[in-house]
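Could you help me review a protein record that somebody else here produced? What it holds is a sequence and that sequence's fold in token form. I have pasted the whole thing underneath without changing anything:
=====
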Amino acid sequence: MEEGAINPDSTVCHVVAMPYPGRGHINPLMNLCKLLVSRKPNNFIVTFIVTDEWLGYIASDPKPDSIRFATIPNILPSENVRALDFPAFYESVMTKLEAPFDHLLRHLHPPVTAMISDVELLWAIELGNRRNIPVATLSTMSATFFSMLYHLHLFAQDVQSSPVNLLVENADYIPGISSSDLAELQTMFLKYDLRVIQLLLECISKVEKAQYLLFTSVYELEGKQVETLKPILPIPIYLVGPSIPYLELEANDGHSSPDYQQWLDSQPQGSVLYISMGSFLSVSTNQMDEIVAGIQESGVRYLWIARGETSRLKEISNGDKGLVLPWCDQLKVLCHSSVGGFWTHCGWNSTLEAVFAGVPLLTFPLFLDQFSNSKQILDIWRTGSKVQGLIGEENLVTREEIAQLVQKFMDLESSETKELRQRARAIRDICQQAIALGGSSATNVDTFIRNITRRNCP
């Protein structure tokens, strides 16, 4: 179904954007589309395609008139199943979305002049090539993690005598992957469903058939990884990030400030720990209880976004120093002067928002690329500390360990804390310079727009 039909006789540049159906993929692609139309406001429209269920979640979000929605049927009766059986959901994305997308594509008006598709849509690049539509594939993972996977794909291609999981688990060296990153990949192959890993690598293998590769990152943060890709990928690579909603930071929607904003206004500068562990996966009930108790025992102020567990956490938190909420405007919260730290699962979008805001991180990775992102935060940028404890019977980080770590992390008088915050502010400045006029990301966005509009658009 197409929303907001446009005169088919008008001469416009019409870009179709197709995200993988998950919040961590939809948001950065939408943020990129908003940036594109802001840079090219005339005769430039975007059709943003999601499943019927996802349109229900995002239809009311603010967007420019030049971005319109179109929908395809849900993959499964309820896409909530992805948290219950992620491998089955992932396989469905790879096999069930292509036909309805192709049908919709053929009936869009005006004719489509370019496509932006998520890297993790196995079929999108070849479909665009069949229809002679230039395809830019967008990686919503870090350039660092993508580079690891791409080198792994090349290695598996060269050594075909064993299944890829056996190759990785028994490898001592893979060209282009450091020994520590290789150890991380080996752990990943042991820990996660092999079907998911194999499909992800197959998606990565298709990238070289696209016309452009986009990253939601910033060149000054991940340029080294991108430079290793340029000699082996035969397509232009653009870092156009951070693809976060910074364009809306100054927007005034005419509504009064939410209660949590007023609460933040009343807190001392740098005193609040913001806690969010993503919208997809969670931890065990026992580990969550330990985290709650540890945060309480630490005595720090906190704003906790708990989504589905809000009611339970409110019941067991019993504190007057914090708020537990199902949702907030995360970037605005991170940019608030009272927020001094972020306990995060290290999703790439959350990592970029923390970078943009200049906030140090307590890293608590749960899944796939989050471990690589945590490593980058800790070892490369040195803007965080890791939540980890002694390995117990249930691999729990105990409340005592959590309380001690949080107290140290939020201690405003600690020289270590001051250094973390200083480095975080330095990374923030690099990021904000990249999106300013003449910065690396701003230049890449403009170059990308010129390339996709040069032949087919006015």
